[in-house]
Amino acid sequence: MMGWSVGYDTNWKRDIGYGVPATCDYPGCNVRVDRGLGHVCGWQQPQGGEDGCGLFFCAEHGGGTICDRCEKAGAPYTPSPDVREWIEHKLTDASWAAWRDTAPAEVAVLRAAIGYGTAGVSERTQDGKPA
Fold it and tell me: Residue 130, exposed/middle/buried by CB under 10 A (0-12, 13-18, 19+)?
């Protein structure tokens, strides 16, 4: 059985699913959404289906329906970066341990994105202990 909690979008090169916290992909909008089908541009079709761009928006900006750019057949917006909460989850949760072991370059990018390894910032495990 396939679930929609967490997956990977090969087009936008980022994690998707209702288990992935995010912000709206509309420029300047900081409304919290998830990257599930309820927020995808493209009438709730995976990766946006035939009509949508596959980005994720709040209700005001087209989440679950279609964004203004796709409505006018325009170029898609630039995707918002991953939120800190999601990055920390990937870096510390036991469920991502195998991925961390096989993707050291991606792990380094995520650590840099939130400042792990810089002065005053240390990585912690899910139970709050230093890693």
Answer: exposed
Distances (CA, A) of 72 to 51, 75, 129: 11, 9, 50
Residue 126 phi/psi, 5° resolution?
Answer: -60, -30
Q: Which residues contact 37 (CB under 8 A, 6 or more apart)?
A: 4, 18, 44, 45, 46, 64
Whole-angstrom distance, CA of residue 96 vs CA of residue 82: 16
Whole-number pLDDT of residue 46: 87
Answer whether 0.70 is exceeded by the pTM: yes
Query: Residue written as tokens 């709730």?
Result: 44
Res 121: pLDDT? 45
For tokens 């900006």, name the residue. 61
Nearest partner of 22 among 3, 41, 39, judged by Cα: 39
Residue 1: its pLDDT value, please? 44
